[in-house]
Amino acid sequence: MKLSTITMALALAVSPVLVLAEQYIPKVGEVFSYKDISQDIYAEKAENKKNDPANSIFAAMREKRKVDIANPNAPQAFSGTDLVQPEFNSSTSPWQALEAVFPSDWDGIKAASATELAQLRSAVKVKTVMDHPDFKIIEMALAPGALLPRFSDAAPGSFHVLEGAVEVTVDAETIAAYTGTSVKLESLSQRRMKVVSDKPAKILWFRWAPAGDQTYLNYGYYLTGCNFHAQPLEAVMPADFEQWDESERQRFTHLQHSAVAEPAKDSFYGVQIQQLTAMKHEEDSVLLRYPLTPLFSNEKDVQWLDFTKIDAKSFFWSKDAAKGGDLLAAWDKIVRMKGIFQAKVPEQLYDFNMSYIANGPKGKYVTHSHATPEFYYILGGETQWLLNGETYTAVAGNVYFHSPYWDHEMLGMKEGTPKVAITGSWSPHGDRSVFAKPMVFTEALTMQASSAVFSDSFNFHDFKLKQGLTFDTKQSLAMSH
After folding, report:
1. Side-chain-side CA neighbours of residue 8 (13 Å)
2. In percent, how much of the chain has pLDDT > 70?
3. Is 315:372 a contact under the CB 8 Å cutoff?
4. pLDDT tens across 318-328, in order?
5. What's the chain look like in SS3?
6. pLDDT confidence of 292, banded at 50, 70, 90?
7. pLDDT per position as a tens digit, 184-193
8. How far is residue 345's CA from residue 364's CA, in Å, rounded to a whole number?
9. Would you put residue 384 in left (φ > 0), alpha (ψ -120 to 50) or beta?
10. Chain-centre distance of CA 28, in angstroms?
């Protein structure tokens, strides 16, 4: 029989053994508060397995995980330099010099455009926040009116705009990109950005080693904790949840595009164009790796996923998660997720995949793991993160790296505040030589606009998220009792 919060408190004062002996596990579909349960019910323990109505599903995943890890022909756990640190704290790390992020001929740029380079350094902030041999995440901030001149990069990638609005040109196409916009960057494409909003633009730049090992993707997802169905009322996400605060979300439809002045052939930048032409000639067979991926897209055009109607091919974990049956109804209540960008490889899966995800406050994503390497870039909320035996507190700006087969679980800490993040995965062990190749600037650096400066109070990680939930938790709890 369920003990009320008051009864449990009295029982604890009289007999701690009584409370432990009668630990309460809510039934499927039961409404309750997180205050009425112990977090211990989610641990992989014999008693919890016995009382978990979905244990047969979890047991099969636990067994499959053991078999897969022991199989020499299965995707292997990372080792050596592939095992980077599990947590990156971007909010406490300093901005980096441009040359630390952009491998280019900076001596030549300085000789050709010393004054303009000094202004570019003031107008653009960059920082590598996750550095894996296969995959990089870069935070990039551009001041109002700032111009990042046209350049090219051998590594494929994607820009994702978190705030502000920018005129983005990729080769011959230009759009006004705003919050939620993803931009595909094929290898050696030329890209240019100019801020057209009156606030700084905040951008995540993802770069990856192409042509990775596709066998890691969709190989195995293992939900090994217990009682995932037991999610408290406080964790239920509202049906109308949106990630971004629409009142702060700037959208621009009118471009301020101006033609790029082509440099003289015998100038430093003219020589850079010749260098790019030579690189394209050498890499002609791989210049368009992702023809099925749109050049520009926005998350507003994608609906939140209905987990009860999951397509086994949707995400790397969906084939195994779909076996959960009724368990997915609990997922639907506490999670909002949508795929927002995928670098699709024809006749294969993908080199890089990215999604928005939000977990309800006080919700518990029990212990799980997978063969696919994964990252989470935290945008908001406060979450307790258990990863490979260590505990972390996840806040905006933190990045978490999930190496293949590493156990991880998450618990929302603040009532009324969901965890909001960008999560993604990639095919590992790709062509890492792309990161050693120089970026080339094919447009001469120019003087920056007078507005292209950052205020002393600028905070990259102060993301304009929708605040709070749209229902009264206390009233709902009262009605449920």
Report:
1. 15
2. 89
3. no
4. 666 666 666 77
5. CCCCHHHHHHHHHHCHHHHHHCCCCCCCCCCCCHHHCCHHHHCCCHHHHHHCCCHHHHHHHHHHHHHHHHCCCCCCCCCHHHCCCCEEEHHHCCCECHHHHCCCCHHHHHHHCHHHHHHHHHHEEEEEEEECCCEEEEEEEECCCCEEEEEECCCCEEEEEEECEEEEEECCEEEEEECCEEEEECCCCEEEEEECCCCCEEEEEEEECCCCCHHHCCCCEEECCCCCCCCCHHHCCCCCCCCECCCCCCCCCCCCCCCCCCCCCCCHHHHHHHHHHHHHHHCHHHCCCCCCCCCEEEHHHCCCCCHHHCCCCCCCCHHHHHHHCCHHHHHHHHEEEEEEEEEECCCCCEEEEEEEEEECCCCEEEEEEECCCEEEEEEECCEEEEECCEEEEECCCEEEEECCCCCEEEEECCCCCCEEEEEEEECCCCCHHHHHCCCEECCCCCCCCCCCCCCCCCCCCCCCECCCCCCCHHHHHHHHC
6. very high
7. 999 999 999 9
8. 34
9. beta
10. 31
92-117 pLDDT tens trace:
999 999 999 999 999 999 999 999 99
**Residues near 229 by Cβ (< 8 Å), separated by ≥ 6?**
26, 28, 52, 53, 54, 327, 330
CA atoms lying within 13 Å on the CB side of residue 351: 30
In the chain, pLDDT over 90 holds for what percent of residues?
77
Cα–Cα distance list, 271 to 104, 172, 264, 287, 293 (Å)? 13, 20, 9, 21, 31
What is the bridge-based pairing of β-strands 157-163 and 181-185? Answer: antiparallel
Residue that is written with structure tokens 């670098």 in the block: 343
User: Which residue segments constitute the domains of the chain, with CATH numbers given?
Assistant: 5-80+216-244+295-429 (2.60.120.10)
Average pLDDT taken over every residue of the chain? 89
Output the CA–CA distances (angstroms, integers) from residue 317 to 339, 416, 431, 481, in the order listed.
13, 28, 25, 36
Tracing tokens 């916009």 back to the chain, one arrives at: 181
Left, alpha or beta for 104 (phi > 0: left; psi -120 to 50: alpha)?
beta
- Residue 480 pLDDT greater than 60, yes or no: no
Amino acid at 182: S
Least confident range of 56-70, 246-260, 340-354 = 246-260
- What is the distance between the terminal CA atoms of the chain, rounded to a whole angstrom? 15
- Residue where the block lists tokens 């293992």: 222
